[in-house]
Specification:
30s Ribosomal Protein S18, three-stranded antiparallel sheet, 52% helix, Double Stranded RNA Binding Domain, disordered N terminus, mainly alpha, 5 helices
Length: 256
Amino acid sequence: MAQAASKTCEICVSGPGHNYCEQCDQRFCDGCKTSHLRTKLSKNHTFLSGSNINPGVKLYCKEHYENFIYYCMECNTPICKICVIKKHKSHDFAEIKESTEGIKAEVKMVIDKKMSNLQSKIADINQGLNRYQTDVKGVIDAIREEGRHLKELIDQKVESMIKSVKEKETKNLQILQSIENEINTTLDKAKKQQKFYQDTQGIKDTSKLIQKLKQIKSQMDQIEDMQVPIMPSVRYSKQRLAKSKIENLFDELTFG
């Protein structure tokens, strides 16, 4: 529930929350208000604005002063028994508790699916990193083995190629780590919405609960899917040549 003393946007928690959504019972900054009104589920929401907003607890139908007992599926709003007859008679509606449970289950499914997907991608990156580092070690071992065979004649060439492999490894690891960090950041966003979802368990106001759940779902839908990049690879093909052809002895390193 929004607190009258709060002056901060409850969405981005950084801007001034001088816009109050009557349907969601939350404070918004100007930017978050604009985004909220662009969302299909909340495009018809109404706002109160000002620095001295003091919203009350919305437990009853504002028009008929009756308890909310149904939820209109077409209008996306809780309704009382009089609203059903006067304004929503031909609409599809369900008991508000049943509707709330359905939305809760849907939001939980979205959260679980999104988090599972993100965690799976992080696992894919870790597996790819291990495989790539194993490949790097194998290439380095192959280069060293051939270097020992040709002894001091090719020591300089060996160390030069090893340096190239390690430099490329460092570069690729930095790139992959950066991508993993991005996915971790996205996962943190999903965890934040998961925390918001857990916090809804204590909300008694069904109207507010439904709006909170829809908002969480909307935020989860906005979390973009991160693609796991093609893992880098490295190969080295050995060959044995005469000493006079040392410069042509080594194949070029290839990186994927």
